[in-house]
Amino acid sequence: MALIISVILLVAQAAAPQIVPPGGGNFADTGPKIDVEKAKAFKPARTESGHPNLEGIWQPRSSGAAYSILPHPGGFFLGQGSDTGIVEGGVLPYQPWAAEQVKYRREHVEADPTGHCHYEGIPHALYFAFQIFQTPNKIAFVHENMHAWRIVYLTGDHPKDYLAWMGDSRGHWEGNTLVVDVANNNDKSVFDMAGHFHSDQLRVVERYTLQDENTLIWEATLTDPKVFTRPVKMRFPLVRAPKDFMIMESGCFEDERDQAHLKDAALPTNHYNEEHEKEKK
Amino acid sequence: MTMKFVICFLTMSAVAFAQTYKAPRTSDGKPDLQGIWIARNAASFDVSEIAEDRTIPYLPEALEREAKADRVDPIIHCAMPGVPRITYMPYPFEIMQRPGYVVFLYEYLHNHRTLQVKQREHLDGIDLFLGDSIARYEGDTLVLDVTSLGSRTWLDSARHTHSDQLHVVERYTRIAADKIDYEATLEDPLTYSRPWKIRMTLHRITEPGFELKEQECIEGDDGRAIHPMYRPWSKS
User: What is the pLDDT of residues A3-60, one digit of tens each?
Assistant: First the structure.
């Protein structure tokens, strides 16, 4: 299945190079820039329960994060290059064993869970368009890609003995910012296609703030004592989709036999940070 | 005689109950269907259980087509189960309503349907698993008109199939605080000799603090899904 999709994409790309890539995951660094001062001054519209109204369909400008969350050249699939990535400082503070694991994963793209149509997890699911619905106690994030959804509960605590691809999300409001604590993450979801990964000790604290009516800032602090040596910060802006947009169905289910081909398909342009570093020098 | 009277009385009181119950309203005045619901039946194994007269009016040629078709239930490969099957999968789902929108979040394989409540033309030239649903309210009833369902999904694991001409009209009516009357009409000129109906009750899960969990389908090396057929229940 994955192979068929990639062939279709490649054919489509060759036939019509002017087509703008769909979804948000591969958008480059173009579009609005994050302006924290502007966000502080902005007075957002409110929902009937008095919270800032984040409802709508949001398209991330996530600098090709689905491809790599670090600075990277363009290449694989419709991936566009990015000089910034979404990680503050452009470096992931891996522990030595974890850095080895990243290398291994880069050489085994066929093991990428998204290639097997799995849930992407947080932050991975946020690189593609999604819609927010707000009720007084629950905020639903409905993702187009992988037909994923997640409910952010404004009540209750993280469950015990529970691990999930999308984790368990508990949120609260700090002024005009929605703060979401994502725990209970399993160790199967990954950050991107470039081998960047986490353990089941991952904790993501997300912050959603409107910069203006049509721009949403996503910031996150990730901690993972098994994999990283210090907390990691990420951020990117999202833009409001035009009014006539709707979240469509993305039906992904794989055929196990196709996975072997994905590796070959990925190899020619499957070069990430080291190569990029070399180019810059 | 006595029994008849009792049955008659029970039927009348059920009708009276349904007529006197008035569903609460959402902030924009629509019948409030919000909550976590589940079908407590085995229709996902054999849909004829909830079919009117327990009969599916197949055309002879459709039966022939079915006999030749693939014998493996598509959900075994982690495919989305289609409409109406998603509604009677043995897993809970949550309905959220916002002004202009109805959202269905299904625990089963994290399916969702995000529906704008407005009149529009159906999408054309596209096949989807959960179809293209146009939502409207008729009095106390939410009506979903669903097309573009493709031919890849089954109505149950008993190999009751349909063609890509399937047109489903679903009707959700809240008849009590914890009950939705669900009715769907299935029309498919390539498969059925006439439109036919299924009907069941959706039960609200009232356990305090109950939340949907994540249900992911993992296809094993032999191509078979690794996930339970029923949601493992803690309580209720």
Answer: 334 333 333 333 333 333 444 445 555 678 899 999 999 999 999 999 999 999 999 9
Chain B residues with CB under 8 Å of a chain A CB are: 27, 34, 77-80, 94, 96, 98, 101, 103, 105, 110-112, 114, 116, 128-130, 209, 211-214, 216-221, 223
Contact B114 A153 (CB under 8 A): no
CA distance B104 to B112: 5
Q: Which of B96, B129, B216 sits opposite A118 (nearest CB)?
A: B216
pTM: 0.86
Residues A249-270: b if buried by 16+ CB within 10 A, e if exposed = bbbbbbeeebbeebbebbeeeb
Domain B24-206+218-224 has CATH 3.30.70.870: no
Q: Could you give the strand order of the β-sheet that contains B35-39, starting from the edge strand earlier in sequence?
A: B112-116, B101-106, B93-98, B35-39, B196-204, B179-187, B167-176, B141-147, B132-138
CA B194 to chain centre: 20
DSSP one-letter string for A237-265: EEEEPPTT-----------GGGHHHHHHH
For A67, the token pair is 């491809």
